[in-house]
Amino acid sequence: MTKEETWSQRFESALHPAIARFNASIGFDIELIEYDLTGSQAHVKMLAHTGIISLEEGDKLVAGLEKIRQEYREGKFQPGVDAEDVHFAVERRLTEIVGDVGKKVHTARSRNDQVGTDTRLYLRDQIQQIKNELREFQGVLLDIAEKNVETLIPGYTHLQRAQPLSLAHHLLAYFQMAQRDWERLGDVSRRVNISPLGCGALAGTTFPIDRHYTAKLLNFDDIYANSLDGVSDRDFAIEFLCAASLIMVHLSRLAEEVILWSSEEFRFVTLKDSCATGSSIMPQKKNPDVPELVRGKTGRVFGHLQAMLVIMKGLPLAYNKDLQEDKEGLFDSVNTIKASLEAMTILLREGLEFRTQRLAEAVAEDFSNATDVADYLAARGVPFREAYNLVGKVVKTSIAAGKLLKDLKLQEWQQLHPAFAADIYEAISPRQVVAARNSYGGTGFVQVRKALIAARAQLAQ
Ligand code: ARG
User: Fold this and answer.
1) Given this structure, which CATH class describes domain 3-107?
2) Domain Fumarate lyase N-terminal: where (predicted)?
3) Ligand 1 within 6 A of 23 CB?
4) Where are the alpha helices (DSSP H) in 16-110?
5) According to the CATH classification, is domain 112-204+219-362 in 1.20.200.10?
6) Does 250 qualify as catalytic in the annotation?
7) CB burial string 412-442: b at 16+ within 10 A, e below
8) Is 239 in the pocket of ligand 1 (CB under 6 A)?
9) Quick one: which atom of ligand 1 is closest to the CA of 319?
10) What separation in angstroms does the CA of 203 have from each of 196, 198, 199, 225, 231?
């Protein structure tokens, strides 16, 4: 059928050309073509299996669909707006290839269950690819972490120096976020992988189809129990967009840290030339475009989630053309996530150098060991709040005198409280401050080494 003709005998005239363009989804749903072909092949096999068409007709249709796949891959199949959407484009070409039997492909099916099937097959594939990319990203985080257990980095709360950390511990926090992302995609997959094929336009079909048969051929885990729900449910897409948004949140947080770290104010990392850009006017500049773009692209994924929620909220059952709007945001989110994950993985792997000397100086130059002085006294019987107040006083007088805690003489410590002894200096050294946080999940080196082993095991799952 071509849309230059009338829709059917019911119509008197063809579509206005502008309306045809407005209506068409072929410009973007061509992305689904391979899934559409696979879905249609399963459908005609089922039609033949159940005797709705003959085995011979089934074979012809399967082969014709395969021919279209080949033509598409060779760049020879490029349907235009006159085809309206990928489903019509395939049916029309199929009929050209196999003759009148091509007109049987749409028996016992509607584009409504068809497009739902295609979109799920597409998303199932893409989720697997994103999961693989997440694994690579996690692997690089882990590689860097393993080399930097003893590299110290300032830890912050409120973006104020708080307590020093093992750099590995800091990176493992992102590993854990990515681990949840990976698991979340697995959860989403379970609801993506349900077949609506055979739900028909909305109410099922008069033909003796076998929905389990097509589901099995297409590796779906289950089939929709209700035909109305099957053709109009987009929860799976919304769930994916939620998971996608969280992935972007995590990438964007890391991106933001890299941007801060590479600034002259922090100087914690150097960006390598392969992953940084210059300025067209300021010759001294080296800009962190990669993390900035990742941070920026986060917005569009959130936007697609919001758009999909709004598309769905007022839709009466069952299919409405509004649902055609589900695709571009979904495709763009998938592409954005894949590109962002790839870029961040490359940036970590080869675009970033931690300035360990500068990091060592940074953790030695501040009062981020103050908690440890209070803990020192508390461990020697002084109530913590009392110790906290004493140390607050020392910090104040030290700042006024332009000194750090390590510069105080033992005599000064003992004037403050008699419990202080010579081992206070060791207790407040950055290395010891980190090592001492040996509680489960803490930054102490022993804990971090255990966490690295556990992370390696998670990665191998
Ligand atoms: N191109 C349409 C979409 O993406 C396919 C389904 C059309 N169904 C219909 N009843 N007009 O949603």
Assistant:
1) mainly alpha
2) 10-303
3) no
4) 17-23, 26-29, 33-49, 55-73, 86-98
5) yes
6) no
7) ebeebbebbeeebeebbebbebbbbbeeeeb
8) no
9) 10
10) 12, 9, 6, 12, 9
SS3 153: strand
Q: How many CB atoms lie within 10 A of CB 381?
A: 8
pTM: 0.96
Nearest CA to ligand 1 atom 3: 324
Q: Which two tokens stand for residue 455?
A: 């992370």
170 and 357 Cβ atoms separated by less than 8 Å: no
Number of C-beta neighbours around residue 322 at 10 A: 14
**pLDDT at 31 exceeding the cut of 60:** yes
Hey, where are the domains in the chain?
A: 3-107, 112-204+219-362, 370-459
Write out the E strands in 282-347: none
Model pLDDT for residues 254-304, shown as the tens digit of each residue? 999 999 999 999 999 999 988 888 888 888 888 999 999 999 999 999 999
Which superfamily is assigned to 370-459 in CATH?
Fumarase/aspartase (C-terminal domain) (1.10.40.30)
Please report how many Cα atoms fall inside a 13 Å half-sphere around the Cα of residue 309, on the Cβ side.
Answer: 10
Name the token pair of 120.
Answer: 């799920």
The per-residue pLDDT for 1 is: 46
pLDDT > 60? residue 3: no
Mean pLDDT of 112-118: 98
Of these residues, 8, 158, 274, 439, which one is catalytic? 158
Closest by CA position to 199, among listed 234, 223, 218? 223
- pLDDT tens-place string over residues 156-201: 999 999 999 999 999 999 999 999 999 999 999 999 999 999 999 9
Q: Are 305 and 241 in contact (CB under 8 A)?
A: yes
CA distance linking residue 174 with residue 183, whole number of Å: 14
User: For the ranges 3-7, 116-120, 189-193, 194-198, which has the lowest average pLDDT?
Assistant: 3-7
pLDDT recorded at residue 173: 98
The rounded Å distance from CA 44 to ligand 1 centre is 20
293-337 pLDDT tens trace? 999 999 999 999 999 999 999 999 999 999 999 999 999 999 999
Phi, psi of 21 (to 5 degrees): -65, -40
CA of 116 to the centre of ligand 1 (A): 9
